[in-house]
Amino acid sequence: MHGLISAAVTTHPRRRPEADALAASQPGLDFEVVEDPEPDGPRSALRTARLAWRRADPGCTHRLLVQDDMRLAPGFARLVRAAVAAQPDRILCLFTEWGSRTSPAVRLAALTGAGWVPLLDPYVPTTAVVLPTAVAHALAEFPAEPGEPDDVLLLRFARKHGMTPLVSSPNLAEHEQGDSLIGNDVLQGPRRAALFGGPPGDWAAVLVPPMVPHLLLFDGVVVCQVPDGEGWRAVPADEFLALSGLSVPDLLDGYAATVAECDPAGRMRRVVADSLLLQLWLAAFCYGVAAYQVVGDAATVDRALRTVRGAAALRTLAPGALRRFVPGHRLAALSTLVAPLVRQAISDGCVHAGKAGDHFWKGSFQ
Question: What's the CATH code of the domain at 59?
Fold first, then answer.
């Protein structure tokens, strides 16, 4: 134990070597390795999480938990301590996957320099998370619903106690490729970080955007997530954009014009179906609308997208949104392939937001 953080790597016995290697990579945090107490039982991360929560050192203020298939950012121990010092009473998530509901908010924070965004997902990513020790001990005894995973239980606990978990921008942990014990790699596809490593954000600053666009992982359509007083509500993107006078035909015309300019030979559409490329364009357009609102003007958005953080965040947008729809061997090159369309859509979204003024933010969705 060093400082005020007790740390653990959670694992299954058959992945003990990976867990030991991860623990050894961070000598400044004295990670303990916590194994599944019933390795031959039904697959569940909750058993191991409960044990790790229970074993949080009462002499420390916080409990850091990392799963065995994560890679940690350079300077991880120092960054975690700084994050905890700035947000001592919060549940801090150090990873969110590139297609999560929260991932576009992380990308927006990359443009502003904020270190955190509120969690928007229906679960708390427990792959790399910091909890106040009192929360960890309470979670160890918090009753689970039948079949409930640890990440959903943690969110239910947070809601019951009026806590909104925060997600870091950038993420301080990256998910390594490998077989998931519960099959998420097959169900969801690759789960990389929304924005891994790079210059840290301002750990004292939390960005709460007025709208966060999201291309739904399983549905393949775009929604605009808006705060509703009790959380976030998903509004179909066309309904949200209608507030500013854009109709569905207007959007289709905008997409057609962008494709004609950016993909005249059809290279993008040989990899991404036209219907899904439309949704990617729409997600990027809505990202431009949101970026304009949080940054202030189109020129500043463009400059922010060209910074190290802004460019890195943008590179995960397309593969994160489309990883279930595009063959795995195409994902590495996908961001470069669709970059002209995505950048044009963001620019057009910024321009439209500037013309629309506050029409978006006076609608009935707010």
Answer: 3.90.550.10
Q: Residues 282, 284, 286, 292: is their CA dihedral positive or negative?
A: negative
Same domain (yes/no): 201, 249: no
Sign of CA dihedral 6, 101, 328, 286: negative
Based on the fold, state whether residues 78 and 187 are members of the same structural domain. yes
> Residue 213, Cα to own-chain centre: how many angstroms?
12
pTM (2 d.p.): 0.93
Same domain? 21 vs 62 = yes
pLDDT at 366: 47
220 and 337 assigned to the same domain:
yes
Residue 273 structure tokens: 């179906």
Question: Checking DSSP bridges between strand 166-168 and strand 202-206, what pairing results, if any?
Answer: unpaired
Measured distance CA(200)–CA(342) in Å, rounded: 25
- Tell me what percent of the residues of the chain surpass a pLDDT of 90: 84
**Identity of residue 256:** A
What range defines the domain where residue 345 resides? 212-362
* Domain finish residue from 160, 187, 206: 206
Instruction: Read off the pLDDT of residues 192-202 as tens digits, 9 standing for 90 and up.
Output: 999 998 889 99
Q: Are residues 317 and 345 part of one domain?
A: yes
What's the half-sphere exposure (Cβ side, CA atoms, 13 Å) at 117? 32
**Each residue of 285-308: pLDDT tens digit?**
999 999 999 999 999 999 999 999
Cα–Cα dist 359/341, whole Å? 26
User: With bands split at pLDDT 50, 70 and 90, how would you rate the model's confidence at 39?
Assistant: confident
> Hunting for tokens 């959670």 — which residue is that?
10
Ramachandran quadrant class, 231 (left: phi over 0; alpha: psi -120 to 50; beta: rest):
left
Same domain, 135 and 222: no
Q: Hey, how many other C-beta atoms are within 10 angstroms of the C-beta on 132?
A: 20
Q: How many domains does the chain have?
A: 2
Cβ atoms of 165 and 91 closer than 8 Å: yes
